[in-house]
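Researcher: Here's a chain I'd like modeled. Treat it as a single chain, no partners, no ligands.
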Amino acid sequence: MRVLFVGQRGIPALGYKVDTVRERRIQALAEMLIKKGHEVVVLCAQPFISRHLTSFNGVKLIHRFSLHPEKPGGWIHFILELTTLWREQADVVHVHGWKIAIMARIAVLLSPESTFVWTIDSVPNQKEGLVRLIARQAAKTVDVVTVPTRELQYAALTYWGVRARYVPDGYNEISEAEISRKQFKLRKGQYCLCTATSSQDVRRIAKAYSKAGTKKKLVVLQERHGYWKRLGKEFPCLFFAGELNGRRLKALIEGAAVVIISGRDTPIDTLFQSMHSGKAIIAMARAGYEEILGANAQFFKDNDTDELTQLLRNVITNVRTQRFWGKKSSLRAFKHFRWSQIAAEYISLYHYPLVQTVSIDSALHPSFTKLPTVKNQGIR
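Model: Modeled as a single isolated chain. Structure tokens:
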């Protein structure tokens, strides 16, 4: 099967920033498809991805001119994408974003034998009526509409009248060599990690953390200067590790006793890494975090400092409680969010876009596995 990805800036995804979530999703999915024996083509925008890179881990890269290095280009790049779609004639065309959705009918005419999958991973800043019109027209044209979050699924159905299938994002374990925590001068299990980056969130958590009465340090992913230096003097429990990602952030997560998820800008990879590492997680009660963590973490309200203080006291001082919640979060990540499982869902959509999955749990019950026997009483 030949799969063409359209609407992204290209792979490999550079860094672990929030604005490359789409590229990381496509990169992980493309690599899984290659392992399954499929042929994958990814369109890349210049100069975001170097034109000299024509292949990555078996994935064919096709470069098209772009006017802006941080975006998939303007309408010139979009027209070039349509011409590539017509030339490739792939079995499956996986579309990301809204620009290609505007011309969904033209795209289908250019490649009539392809299965079109449209993934909605953002909400455009346009008038609601215009977005509803585009979404409905595109949904009628493509074969499948998918969303990576329940929030987007609800928005698509409620505001745009589009039924979308929920296929969450997954995670891949960082397999590079580990980095020692000695450079941070932190001992394993003797600190907690806070993922919040805004000053208000960090101050609120530091206040609750000080009330909890623990001697463990609270690690913040900021540099100690300016406002943060003054905040560190106000709360001596704070330890500033700087802006980290990749292996260095992984090392901090694996050595933390508890991970505190707060704010609205925590990367999904950080959340998945915390779950995969088997860490007890205390998260802010937000739809996105609750959707991923389920009942496998403890939640606090945004402005309720007393509730957060009580949760910190119960978890930080009890190693058994940390292991209990860490095991639950790790098991959820392993069962539901590995890319090997997520890729299988996408592949099933590629092959059978019109087939709806139906639960057959009742067939597993002994009372439903056998048909009732009827004695032949003859014809009367």
